[in-house]
Amino acid sequence: MSVQPIPADYPRISPYLCVKDAARALAWYVAVLGAEEIMRIPRDDGAVMHGEIRIGGSVVMVGEEAADYGAFAPGHFGGTAVSLMLYVGDVDAAFARALDAGAREERPPADQPFGDRVGTLLDPFGHRWHLASRVEEVSVEEMVRRMSGG
């Protein structure tokens, strides 16, 4: 049997989030972002060594912080340099649900010149999410015009 080098049921690129308390993070992503947990591999101490969730067609991998592997949660660095963009059906409802579940607001949802309504938050594990809903189809030319103040 031949093995495909790129699994058919995975996207070409998937973020890998290192967190403190991966079990709680997986549960939060399921409850708040509507993710589906598809895999969980425990460490000997019971913590989650590796977990995977699916949100739409995307796979997000989640693992417990492991200093011996150089895998650190955002708090180790004083914050995160990476953001995740997630399109949802109702950005205002999803944003409120996230705040109610312990996320911290960075920017409330607002209509943007590129046609999306976007709000930015930090999840309880230190990862930045831009939650968005498309509210208007805007051409690239119109985006450039709007964003340049024209």
UniProtKB/TrEMBL annotation:
It holds the Pfam family Glyoxalase. It comes from the Bacteria. CDD domains: VOC_like (cd07246). Residues 7-134 form the VOC domain. PANTHER family: BNAUNNG04460D PROTEIN-RELATED, VOC DOMAIN-CONTAINING PROTEIN. This is PhnB protein. It comes from Falsiroseomonas stagni DSM 19981. The lineage of its organism: Bacteria, Pseudomonadati, Pseudomonadota, Alphaproteobacteria, Acetobacterales.
